[in-house]
């Protein structure tokens, strides 16, 4: 399914009825936007909090945290 829509003066786009019905989204529903290169995707977000966090964190890469190093840095900042 594809549709070409016009963006209004406030940056709003009307989601066609067939799309809304297919995703079962209604006024007040939340939607998830993802920008990948020059492609904007919109989908109905997962309903549970863990799935939402995983989807939001996707693409952020792995985070590295050294608690000892952070402790030493914090201690040095407080002393100086």
How do the strands line up in the largest sheet?
1-2
Radius of gyration: 21 Å
Mean pLDDT across all residues, rounded? 85
Shape: elongated
Number of helices: 3
Ranges where pLDDT stays below 50 over 5 or more residues in a row are none
Give the domain tally: 1
Helix/strand-derived category reads: alpha+beta
Total strands: 2
Give a short account of the largest sheet. 2 strands, antiparallel
User: Proportion of β residues?
Assistant: 5-15%
Terminal CA distance reads 61 Å
Give the SSE string.
HEEHH
Bin the helical content.
25-40%
Short description:
This protein is α+β, with helices and mostly antiparallel strands and 80 residues long. 36% of the residues lie in helices and 12% in strands.
Task: Give the SSE layout.
Layout: H1 17-23, E1 32-36, E2 39-43, H2 49-57, H3 67-79
Antiparallel strand pairs: 1-2
Question: What does this protein structure show overall?
Answer:
By secondary structure, the chain is an alpha+beta fold. It has one domain (17-79). 36% of the residues lie in helices and 12% in strands. It has helices at 17-23, 49-57, 67-79, and strands at 32-36, 39-43. A two-stranded antiparallel ribbon has the order 1-2. The longest helix is centred in the last third of the chain and has 13 residues, at 67-79. The chain is elongated and about 60 Å long. The mean pLDDT is 85.
Describe this protein with a few key phrases:
2 strands; two-stranded antiparallel sheet; alpha+beta; 80 residues
């Amino acid at each position: 399914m594809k549709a070409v829509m016009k963006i209004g003066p406030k940056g709003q786009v009307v989601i066609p009825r067939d799309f809304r019905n297919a995703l079962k989204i209604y006024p007040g529903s939340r939607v998830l936007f993802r920008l990948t290169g020059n492609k904007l995707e919109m989908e109905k977000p997962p309903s549970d909090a863990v799935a939402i966090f995983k989807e939001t964190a996707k693409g952020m890469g792995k985070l590295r945290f050294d608690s000892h190093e952070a402790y030493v840095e914090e201690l040095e900042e407080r002393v100086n």
